[in-house]
Amino acid sequence: MIEVSAGRVDRVAILSVHTCPLDQPGTGDSGGMNVLVRSVARRLAGMGTGVDVFTRRAGPEQSCVEMDPRVRCIHLAAGPPRPVAKEDLHAHLPEFLCSLLSFGNEEARRLGRDRPYDVVHGHYWLSGWAARRAAERWGVPLVHSFHTLGRVKDLSLAGGDSPESPLRIAGEESVVRWADCLLVPTPGEAAELVHLYGARPERVRVVSPGVDIGLFTPADRESARAALGVGPRPLVLFAGRLQPLKAPDVAVRAVAALAARRPDLDPALVVLGGPSGRNGVGPEALVAVARDLGIADRVRVLPPVPHDRLPAWYRAADVLIVPSRAESFGLVALEAAACGTPVVASDVGGLRTAVRDGTTGLLVPPGSPGAFADALERVLSDSTFRRTLGAAGARFARRFDWRQAAAGLLAVYEEMAERFADRTGGAAGEDLSQGAGGGALRSSRSAG
User: Fold this and answer.
1) CA 98, CA 435: separation in Å to the nearest integer?
2) CB of 371 within 8 A of CB of 361?
3) What average pLDDT does this structure show over 294-301?
4) Which one of 44, 102, 140, 356 is most buried, counting C-beta atoms within 10 A?
5) Rounded-to-integer distance, Cα 282 and Cα 86, Å
6) Pairing verdict, β 119-123 and 142-145
7) Closest CA to 255 of 296, 303, 316
8) Given this structure, which CATH class describes domain 11-210+402-434?
9) CATH 3.40.50.2000 in the chain, residues?
10) CA distance 18 to 283
């Protein structure tokens, strides 16, 4: 068997159980996390680290898809080969783990390595359950990213939303105890992990996500509007999944309030997104809200578009509205800024990092259509202010680059691999020839 040097990270297993990085962002469970996983995987591969992304097979997908050179998306059998509600996926995690261990063990034998991967990185709490056990079996460090936290969501519930399940909270607590590193996008989320979950600060690392600064760039607004068939009205854009947490109804109500207050501004709203989760907001519900408020002619609800078509919409918009009640980061805000579009967003979570209040956009109290209408009025009524915000946003967004994010992530992987090897004496885990198994796993990792 080939021994891998301590601290060297040649191969990484990324787990994204509940959503595939190939899925269309903006609907179902697909969003910024999907963009992040695919973007950093591509850049890690460009730096020489092979990446296998594991997700659940939810249909007739190919079992193994090469997304980019040295990056594979592997669909594992776990439950029925059809979509399953995220809330019900926990029942299929043991089968997912068995499929994962079997695949990994075959990879180790094929490559002649003592272990198939040097690091396991879980995304979202469901993945954390399987990632912990795979890391134990292979004798490698566990890195985890939550993306959203159940206790944070419970602190900002909207009408029609349900509290997170005790199972999720317990699962998150378990991952916090066992992960060698908890990866977060902002210092704010680091503080939430410490104060709400008792995470040990020395196990938390901050690595900000990025934006494709080659794709998301400023361009002529009128040309973008003409290409999309956007009319002459000032355009407010909402781009995201349609669920109570993202508050698309607040966007509709804010535009209605602004239109009533300042008919001379004549604003229009385009919503790009699809329903998400059991409590998802249907497009017809948003249309009904607009009709009840008397602005049906001002609101268009369109399906989400492929990621590489989003820049055209950002450029066509006069302002992006992000009224989320909670947000781990808010990648759409950074993408819009990169295109030179001002952002009006909730003063919550990662949006405080993605938007520089008064410089690249405006932050307002969440859940208040009136406050959002005030901020939209400031942006739409002052073209000089709007252009200043847009120019500052384009400059600001260039600080966030996926190559930089991937380099920061690789540095964390290497640090964890070296520390793990020092702590375990370089042990490579159990004999892989024992097969996937399903019983209790022994580990040299300490939960303390």
Assistant:
1) 9
2) no
3) 96
4) 140
5) 18
6) parallel
7) 296
8) alpha beta
9) 11-210+402-434, 221-397
10) 23
Residue 233 contacts residue 267 (beta carbons within 8 Å): yes
Q: What is the tens place of the pLDDT at every residue in 100-111?
A: 999 999 999 999
Give the pairing of strands 343-346 and 299-302.
Answer: unpaired
Token pair 């847009």 in the structure block, residue: 390
Q: Do residues 33 and 16 touch, judged by C-beta distance below 8 A? A: yes
- What percent of the chain lies above the pLDDT cut of 70? 91
The whole-angstrom separation of Cα 223 and Cα 220 is: 6
How far apart, in whole angstroms, are the C-alpha atoms of residue 151 and residue 174?
14
Q: Which two tokens stand for residue 331?
A: 């990648």
- Rounded to the nearest integer, the mean pLDDT of the chain is 90
Q: Is the dihedral of CA 344, 349, 350, 353 positive or negative?
A: positive
- Report d(CA 338, CA 398) in Å as an integer: 7
pTM of the model: 0.89
In the block, tokens 């020839």 appear at 433
- Beta strands 361-364 and 50-56 are unpaired
Q: What is the reported pLDDT for 446?
A: 41
Would you say 290 and 261 are in contact if contact means Cβ atoms under 8 Å apart?
no
CA distance 137 to 169: 24
According to the model, what pLDDT value does residue 104 have?
A: 97
Q: How far is 381 from 375, CA to CA, in rounded Å?
A: 10
Asked if residue 50 has pLDDT above 50, the reply is yes
pLDDT at 23: 86
